[in-house]
Amino acid sequence: MRLFDSHCHFDVDEFAVDRDAALQRARTAGVGGQVVPAIDFASWPRIEALCAAHADLHPAYGLHPMYIAHHLPEHIEALDDWLQQHPAVAVGECGLDFLVEGLPAEPQRQCFEAHLEVAKRHALPLVIHARRAVEEVIHRLRAKGGLSGVVHSYSGSLEQAHQLFDLGFMIGLGGPVTYDRASKLRRIVKEIPLDCLLLETDAPDQPDASHRGERNEPSYLPRVAEVIAELRGISVEELAKATWNNATRLFFDA
Cβ of 20: how many Cβ atoms within 10 Å? Predict the structure, then answer.
């Protein structure tokens, strides 16, 4: 059984003390692939070097909306050139965050639109962050057209999920679905098409319920898979195979 972690910030400082050991734990747990999405311009070379050293780690380059204050116009301009010289499996992490107070909305919108243009130009899928912004993300994806990708750590409605599927997007689910209180998310998990689902950890953030308050890591992905499989009434093996195939189709067959 192989699991694919479609969203893990394995390059960040939280893994500095035991990155090699954490990677080995992930492999031992059956995690055979990870997408490592960037959060800022400075992280691009670090992610490239990390993924070049490990065949099961795959880079995505972009500018995270939560750090919009640190992104300069030349950073988004550099993304186009960077992707020409440095192959990636996706553009991201990018998107919109209207949950965190103090994050200016208009610069986020401009940055996100630029990512959509870059992804379309390079024929790459997007890794999208959307908090209290799913409806606007859908609107912008529909207006742009011809895109694919994943909305990670999905927090929208079932209806919005189906709109995303119709646009060629999948949804990523991780630790939050393992909490008993996540009733809305659990209902969505039961009803969405299996071929539109990706697994993720978002490590080092969003640990599952059994690791509450701890640093998250990709070796915990099996617990996410177990919960989702149970909710859907299928085996973990069936879920693992389907989500592995989904990740392969999105990130490598585009």
Answer: 10
Q: Is 118 helix (H, G, I), strand (E, B) or coil?
A: helix
Residue 129, annotated ligand binder?
yes
Is residue 139 part of an annotated ligand binding site? no
> pTM of the prediction?
0.98
Residue 125 amino acid letter? P
Please give the single-letter amino acid code of residue 98: F
Is 202 annotated as contributing to ligand binding?
yes
Considering the domain boundaries, does residue 22 fall inside one? no
Domain of residue 205, CATH code: 3.20.20.140
- Is 93 within any annotated ligand binding site? yes
Q: Per residue in 234-246, pLDDT tens? A: 999 999 999 999 9
Cα–Cα distance measured from residue 58 to residue 107, given in angstroms and rounded to the nearest whole number: 28
Q: Which amino acid is at 251?
A: F
152 with 232, same domain: the answer is yes
Task: Give the domain extent around 210.
Answer: 148-215+222-254
Residue 47 lies in a domain: no
To the question of whether residue 152 is assigned a binding role by annotation, the answer is yes
At 88-146, the pLDDT tens digits run 999 999 999 999 999 999 999 999 999 999 999 999 999 999 999 999 999 999 999 99
Question: Looking at the structure, do residues 153 and 254 belong to the same domain, yes or no?
Answer: yes
